[in-house]
Design a protein that fits this description.
Length: about 325
C-alpha cells in the first residue's frame, strides 16, 4: 500500500476537515524515509523516529525531506540540521521562495538560443487555472498556426492532492528539464489518456547546475525560480510526464475545467464537451513536436522526440509576450 499517496494530503494537502483512519497494521519497517516522517508525525511520535538518525550521515534526499517537515520537528534538532547542512538549507529556502517571473524575465528565456527543441510551460501564479505550452525548434523558430498566430495548447501543472513541489505527488516544480521520448505504450487510459505520454527527466546530478545554466540566459543564473527542479530531484521525485487523461471533469465550476489535475505531472486535455466537441491536445502536442524536429508524423517517430522543457510561473499576461524567431 502506498501510505504516502493515501495519507499525506490530510497533513499538508487540500482535504482539511476530513478525518483519516490511521492503519493499525502498518509495516513500519517497509516505509521509505518520506513515508516514515509522515506516519510518525501522524502518530504524534516523530521524535522517536528522529532519535534514530545520525545527523552526520544523512543522504541528500533525507536532508531535504527533513527540511520539508520543519514544523513537525524539534527546534533543537532542526537547528543542528541546518547548521550541519547550511548550503542545502540555503538551496531549499531559495526553491521554496517560489519566485514568480516578470515579463522581461520570461521574455529573456523565450528569446534564448539553446539550439534544442524547446517547450515552454508557462503558468499564472498559483497554478489554479491552466497555463499554456509553446514550442520552439532548434533553429529558434516558434511554431505558428496557419493563420500566423503562435501555436499553443492549454496545460495544467497543479497537484490534485493540493501538495507543493517538495512532496511526492506535489505540484510540478519550476525549472529546466529534458523531454526524452515517450512511454512504450499508451496504457491506463482512464488516468493517462489514449495517446502516449512524454517522458520528463530531471537534469542529472552528475551534470550539475552548470548543465541547467547552459539552458538559461546569464541573468537567470542567480535567480531562485529554477532551483525547484534541483530540490525536487534531490528529494527523489521521479516519473514526471506530460500526458492527457481519459477522466472527464464534469464540474464546470472548477477553475481548471475541463482539465484534470495530476499527481505531479503536466496534463493536457483529452475530452468531449457536451458530446459535440472532441479535444485531443495530447495528440496535437505529439504531432507538433515531431514536425518541429522535421520528422514525419508517425507512431514510430514519437519515440524520437527529444528536447528541453521550461516550467515557469509568470505574473503577467501571455498577450504581452513576443514569440519571434
Amino acid at each position: 500500500m502506498n501510505y504516502l499517496k493515501t495519507y499525506l494530503p490530510y497533513l499538508f494537502g487540500n482535504k482539511e476537515g476530513k478525518s483519516y483512519v490511521f492503519p493499525q497494521d502498518l509495516d513500519w519497517d517497509n516505509l521509505n524515509f518520506e513515508e516514515s516522517l509522515m506516519m510518525y508525525s501522524l502518530n504524534d511520535d516523530i521524535d522517536s523516529f528522529i532519535n534514530t538518525l545520525d545527523i552526520t550521515s544523512l543522504l541528500p534526499s533525507q536532508i531535504f525531506h527533513l527540511f520539508s517537515y520543519k514544523k513537525q520537528l524539534d527546534h533543537y534538532f532542526f537547528t543542528n540540521l541546518t547548521s550541519f547542512y547550511p548550503e542545502e538549507y540555503e538551496l531549499f529556502l531559495k526553491a521554496k521562495k517560489g519566485e514568480v517571473l516578470k515579463h522581461d524575465d520570461v521574455q529573456e528565456i523565450l528569446n534564448y538560443k539553446n539550439h534544442e527543441l524547446s517547450m515552454f510551460a508557462i503558468f499564472r501564479e498559483g497554478r489554479h487555472k491552466p497555463g499554456k505550452i509553446f514550442v520552439k525548434d532548434s533553429y529558434n523558430r516558434f511554431v505558428h498556426n496557419l493563420n500566423g498566430s503562435v501555436w499553443s495548447i492549454p496545460i495544467l501543472g497543479v497537484s490534485g492532492r493540493g501538495l507543493p513541489f517538495n512532496h511526492s505527488n506535489g505540484t510540478t516544480p519550476c525549472g529546466v528539464f529534458t523531454v526524452d521520448s515517450v512511454m512504450p505504450e499508451a496504457n491506463q487510459h482512464a488516468e493517462f489518456g489514449k495517446f502516449r505520454r512524454l517522458i520528463v527527466n530531471f537534469i542529472s546530478q552528475s551534470e550539475g547546475e552548470e548543465k541547467i545554466k547552459q539552458m538559461l540566459p546569464t541573468s537567470h543564473y542567480k535567480k531562485s525560480w529554477w532551483q525547484q527542479c534541483v530540490v525536487a530531484r534531490e528529494l527523489g521525485r521521479s516519473l514526471l510526464r506530460i500526458h492527457g487523461t481519459g477522466t472527464i471533469n464534469k464540474n464546470p465550476f472548477t477553475p481548471h475545467f475541463p482539465m484534470i489535475p495530476s499527481s505531479g505531472c503536466l496534463t493536457t486535455t483529452e475530452t468531449h464537451l457536451m458530446g459535440l466537441v472532441q479535444i485531443n491536445h495530447q495528440r496535437n502536442l505529439l504531432d507538433t513536436l515531431m514536425k518541429a524536429q522535421n520528422l514525419p508524423v508517425t507512431y514510430e517517430n514519437e519515440s524520437k522526440i527529444h528536447g528541453v522543457l521550461y516550467v515557469i510561473d509568470f505574473d503577467g499576461t501571455y498577450q504581452t509576450l513576443e514569440f519571434k524567431s
